[in-house]
């Protein structure tokens, strides 16, 4: 899950994932994210957090979906 988050944020930033600063693991517990979505559960899970000016959402059941939205864009839509 976290690799997908890094890839999507890096694409938005025009950078490579290893070059993102601060590193994702200093902002949120990446091991906990992986553990939360590791088991194929029948329960819907939704996790939202902010990273580098983006709202990141990981949601779903068996195959969770990662979405990344620019905070400035989402504030204009409200």
Task: Give a structural overview.
By secondary structure, the protein is an alpha+beta fold. The protein has one domain (2-77). It is 36% helix and 26% strand. The protein has three helices and three strands, in the order ααβββα. It has a three-stranded antiparallel β-sheet. β2 (54-60) and β3 (65-70) form a beta hairpin. It is globular and about 35 Å long.
Q: Helix and strand layout, with pairings?
A:
Elements lengths: L1 H12 L16 H9 L6 E7 L2 E7 L4 E6 H7 L1
Antiparallel strand pairs: 1-2, 2-3
Number of domains: 1
Low-pLDDT runs:
none
Order of helices and strands: HHEEEH
Provide mean pLDDT, rounded.
89
Radius of gyration (Å)? 13 Å
Shape: globular
Helix content: 25-40%
Keywords:
globular; three-stranded antiparallel sheet; 3 strands; alpha+beta; 78 residues
Short description:
This protein has about 80 residues and is an alpha+beta fold. About 35% of the residues lie in helices and about 25% in strands.
């Amino acid at each position: 899950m976290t690799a997908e988050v890094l890839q999507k944020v890096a694409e938005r930033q025009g950078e490579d994932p290893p070059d993102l600063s601060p590193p994702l693991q200093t902002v949120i517990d990446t091991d906990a994210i992986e553990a939360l979505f590791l088991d194929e559960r029948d329960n819907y899970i939704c996790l939202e957090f902010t990273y580098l000016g983006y709202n990141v959402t990981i949601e779903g059941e068996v195959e969770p979906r990662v979405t990344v939205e620019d905070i400035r864009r989402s504030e204009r839509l409200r």
